[in-house]
Design brief:
The structure holds three protein chains of three kinds. Chain A is an alpha/beta fold. Chain A is built from eleven helices and ten strands. Chain A has a six-stranded mixed sheet with strand order 6-7-8-3-9-10, sandwiched between helices. Chain A has a four-stranded antiparallel sheet with strand order 2-1-4-5, with helices on one face. The radius of gyration of chain A is 19 Å and the shape is globular. Chain B has a two-stranded antiparallel sheet with strand order 1-2. By secondary structure, chain B is mainly alpha-helical. Classes of the chains: A alpha/beta, B mainly alpha, C mainly alpha. Chains in contact: A-B, B-C. Chains B and C meet through helix 5, helix 10 and helix 12 of B and helix 3, helix 4, helix 9 and helix 11 of C. The structure holds adenosine-5'-diphosphate and magnesium ion.
Chain lengths: 267, 328, 295
């Protein structure tokens, strides 16, 4: 399951133009500095990870990257173009897709339609006028996403009829069906067991082979190490370490961030 | 006389009532809690009367002009109040509706003051009415299907999610205002053309209540619900004559019970029943059985996953005793 | 001067009515659209009872208070609690409560309309007698004086209660953050019921005083007041005690001013226009607190 170290070196970050770049991004909620000066670059075809204790600003960072959360200051660039004043939907149409930390499926649409919501936005998925008006006709992108997320058989289920893990896979499928160039996954495996996690990891790697850049928020260290090429560690809204996953989890500052928290909780 | 002819007045009232109900249902379906359609209806009544009486316009041009003007007025309203949230938006539109009523009372010659306008006779026919209705219903029905239907669902249930898949939520909200203005004004214009008279009393708060009850009892998420509601509440008073003098009370009880116990209305009950049948039927299909079985097999170690989830929630699993320790 | 007196009297009636609505909206997040119906039905009940016997002033007020509180409790238990029990999220719950309130309000309205044939009704059979004192060139009625004093006392009492008492604190805590409130060991349900009862009692009281000073109301009077009360609350800022006070008298002042300046019936448009103006210029109202994050 592990990618060899050599492969990763070949993909070393810092060569070529990044898909995404954040420059000194800050998001404050009143006095709370949720994200406090984060700068990072994401290169195509790599899987990045973010670790950090709860409340360290990971979700807020993803919110800022997708323009759903208002930036206090800083710059965001996609393909070298600044977009920190653009709307959330316009950056989504540039094919930045995401999942949310909590499951957000539409209760009145079945699995297939929930996923197709993502495919609907694709430029290459414009059926002819008649079938569009009548709402008939297939959607290859949706089929493909159902395939990748292994959701066959569940197409006509409604979200409330699915187990938690399956709901999360539908979310991921919806994000994939947009044919993203940058995929942001906010704790996609929360509540999944080891088997399911391995499947998600596998899925991410197959997407990586298609050249997709991915950013994964994850607490499970084994999954991080198995999946990611490069990991950022956050605490109190700041990046405190980055590098190969094995190195980052051994970083004393990172351990301190988690342990210190644990300590305080026990105190 | 045939049934159709004897009940023509009720049939006409059903059609205008249906369009009025749709003028509130469409924004509601897009998550915009606006009653501005009722104000557009009042505007439509008066504008129709003025165009026919003072400008000798024919029926169809009158309806066209009135409808477009109503749409634009509500769109402009929408531009101003779009940023308000749920309840305050609703109340702002209620205020808009009531202001239309006050303007009607104080409009002098144009609106006829407290007595309103009457004698609005034109070349409007039932053929016109049915044609307009069919066109509108087809368009509304199409908006519930396919891509547009899905996107409207998303905009209503989760605007943030909607914009994260590239939907321009703001435009949808403005469209909701525009369409509700169009529908309300069209309903009003047709109402004045068949009813021939209008007074300020006809467009008060009770009209908001009526339109709202139609879609709450009928069902707020589909045009079929609006049809059910329009039919029920146009014909119910007639049927309830049997019950006699307490008909208003029965009407009130029906509305209250529906509002509290079945917020998705009669049509919502049907949808739920349909889903239940579907669920039962599909458990017999092989592919589904296989998928469910596979899922169950995969999640047999559920306890472990659950324990881990709790762990995740309480604190990250990267703890000395947790998986991090194991990896060091 | 006489106009100023009218402003104060009218404003006091608005205040009594709006106070109850503001209380539930600002604390337990319920915008009760049957408040107008409760207001009307309390008077209607008084009217029915006075048909049977003659009662002095105070017992009539008490009837209003009791009927209002009782109806409000019924609405809470039979409608709002049921809606909240079934609701999936806050946004739809808010909306359903508004709609449910409108729906429930139809029932008392229908009963009253049926009985009175939509004609005005009053409390003439009470042994209460209207006096008018003349001070200089001012004419003050005893009922106006009572209304103003009652409104003032109740407003102060309510403000103190909300600020000082344990329940008041708890209520405000619910208004700001449900979670914190439950940590404080607040019995949410009991407190919500109490709040609704107080709110209904205020509606009943306002109804009686309103009818005594105006002579009669119609079954539909409640609806108009509802929108006006909404204007008062929005004007001052949702959940602010100073806000309703300001909003009520400000609205009354504007209305009286328009009444003296214009002919016709533009006065009805004042409240609607003010709602607009405030929502456009300052949606949080004059004394409104910033939107509090509730997650
Ligand atoms: N909408 C918001 N308003 C105010 N504070 C917020 C908001 N969203 C997040 N926060 C705060 O920002 C901090 C970072 O939260 P978050 O990004 O969710 O952390 P993580 O995803 O790493 O657990 C937390 O202290 C949280 O309470
Ligand atoms: Mg998070």
């Amino acid at each position: 399951m592990t990618t060899s170290a050599n492969e990763r070196v070949a993909h070393a970050p810092d060569s070529g133009t990044p898909v995404f770049e954040a420059r000194d991004v800050k998001v404050y909620f009143g006095g709370v500095k949720a994200v406090d000066g984060v700068s990072l670059k994401l290169m195509p075809g790599l899987i990045y990870g973010i670790i950090g204790p709860n409340g360290s600003g990971k979700s807020t960072l993803i919110g800022a990257m997708t323009r759903l959360t208002k930036l206090t200051s800083g710059e965001l660039l996609f393909d070298g173009e600044p977009y920190h004043n653009a709307s959330a939907s316009s950056i989504a149409r540039k094919r930045v897709a995401r999942t949310f930390q909590t499951v957000r499926l539409l209760p009145d649409l079945d699995v297939r339609d929930n996923i197709r919501l993502g495919a609907d936005g694709r430029q290459d998925e414009r059926p002819n006028l008649l079938s569009r008006i009548l709402g008939i006709g297939g959607s290859p992108a949706t089929d493909d996403a159902i395939d990748k997320a292994q959701l066959h058989g569940f197409e006509s289920f409604y979200p409330s009829e699915l187990s938690y893990g399956t709901q999360r896979r539908v979310e991921i499928a919806r994000a994939i069906s947009t044919n993203p160039r940058l995929l942001l996954l906010d704790e996609p495996t929360a509540g999944m067991n080891q088997t399911e996690r391995a499947e998600i990891s596998q899925l991410m790697k197959s997407l990586k082979n298609d050249g997709l850049c991915q950013l994964l928020v994850e607490h499970d260290v084994q999954m991080m190490i198995d999946t990611c090429d490069h990991v950022f560690a956050m605490n109190f809204g700041k990046l405190i370490a980055e590098g190969r996953p094995e190195d980052v989890v051994r970083d004393p500052q990172v351990q301190e961030a988690y342990l210190g928290r644990k300590w305080r909780e026990h105190a | 006389m045939s049934w159709y002819d004897t009940n023509l007045v009720l049939i006409q009232a059903t059609i205008t009532g249906l369009l009025l109900a749709l003028s509130i249902q469409i924004p509601l379906r897009m998550g915009v809690f606006s009653f501005a359609g009722v104000g557009a209806y009042g505007f439509g009544c008066y504008a129709g009367a003025v165009l026919v009486l003072d400008h000798q316009m024919a029926a169809l041009p009158t309806i066209l002009v009135t409808t477009l003007a109503g749409g634009l007025i509500v769109l402009v309203l929408g531009l101003f109040i779009n940023r308000l949230n749920g309840l305050t938006l609703a109340m702002a539109t209620v205020a808009f509706d009531l202001i239309i009523g006050v303007v009607a009372v104080n409009g002098g010659e144009t609106t006829g003051g407290a007595t309103g306008r009457y004698g609005v006779i034109s070349d409007f026919t039932m053929g016109h009415m049915w044609t307009i209705l069919v066109v509108v219903m087809v368009l509304v029905a199409l908006s519930e299907r396919g891509k547009l239907g899905r996107r409207i669902d998303a905009v209503r249930d989760d605007p943030e999610l909607a914009s994260s898949v590239g939907i321009r939520v703001y435009n949808y909200r403005l469209a909701a205002f525009f369409v509700s203005g169009l529908l309300g004004a069209a309903a009003g214009a047709m109402n004045i053309l068949v009813r021939s008279a209008i007074t300020p009393l006809d467009i008060g708060f009770h009209l908001i209540v009526l339109a709202l009850t139609m879609i709450i009892v009928g069902g707020s998420l589909s045009w079929k619900g609006a049809v059910i509601g329009a039919v029920v509440f146009t014909w119910l008073p007639d049927v309830l004559q049997v019950i006699g003098e307490w008909q208003e009370l029965v009407y009130g009880v029906i509305v209250a019970v529906a509002a509290v116990l079945m917020p998705r209305g009669i049509y919502g009950l049907y949808v739920e029943a349909k889903r239940a049948v579907l669920r039962r039927r599909r458990t017999r299909r092989g592919a589904v059985r296989a998928a469910v079985a596979a899922e169950r097999a995969r999640t047999t170690d559920d306890d472990e996953a659950l324990a881990e989830m709790e762990d995740d929630l309480g604190s990250p699993s990267v703890t000395p005793g947790g998986s991090m320790g194991a990896n060091l | 001067m006489q106009d100023l007196l009218s402003v104060v009297t009218l404003g006091s009636i608005y205040l009594l009515f709006a106070l109850g609505m503001s209380l539930t909206w600002g604390t337990i997040d319920i915008l009760n659209f049957s408040h107008g119906s409760i207001f009307m039905f309390s008077v209607f009940t008084g009217y029915l009872i006075l048909d049977l016997t003659t009662l002095p002033f105070l017992p009539v007020l008490l009837i209003g208070v009791a009927v209002g509180a009782l109806m409000s409790l019924l609405v809470q238990v039979l409608a709002f609690e049921q809606i909240l029990k079934r609701a999936t999220n806050k946004k739809t719950a808010e909306m359903q409560i508004l709609i449910g309130g409108i729906g429930v309000a139809i029932i008392p309205l229908a009963i009253a309309q049926h009985h009175t044939k939509s004609n005005p009704f009053g409390l003439r059979e009470s042994s209460f007698e209207l006096h008018t004192w003349v001070v200089g060139d001012l004419r003050i009625t005893n009922i106006a004086a009572i209304t103003v004093v009652t409104a003032a006392i109740l407003w102060v009492a309510m403000a103190l209660w909300l600020r000082r008492s344990r329940q008041g604190l708890a209520l405000r805590a619910i208004g700001v953050d449900t979670e914190v409130a439950s940590l404080m060991g607040v019995h949410r349900r009991r407190l919500a019921l109490a709040t609704m009862a107080v709110s209904g009692a205020l509606a009943g009281l306002a109804g009686m005083l309103f009818t005594f000073s105006l002579g009669a109301i119609t079954p539909e009077s409640g609806d108009t007041l509802l929108v006006k009360a909404f204007a008062c609350i929005i004007l001052g800022g949702i959940g602010s005690m100073r806000g309703v006070l300001f909003g009520s008298y400000f609205l009354a002042a504007c209305e009286v001013w328009v009444l003296t300046q214009t002919s016709g019936s533009w006065v009805e448009a004042v409240s609607f226009g003010l709602i607009f103006l405030v929502l456009l210029i300052r949606p949080t109202g004059v004394f409104g607190r910033k939107e509090v994050r509730r997650t």
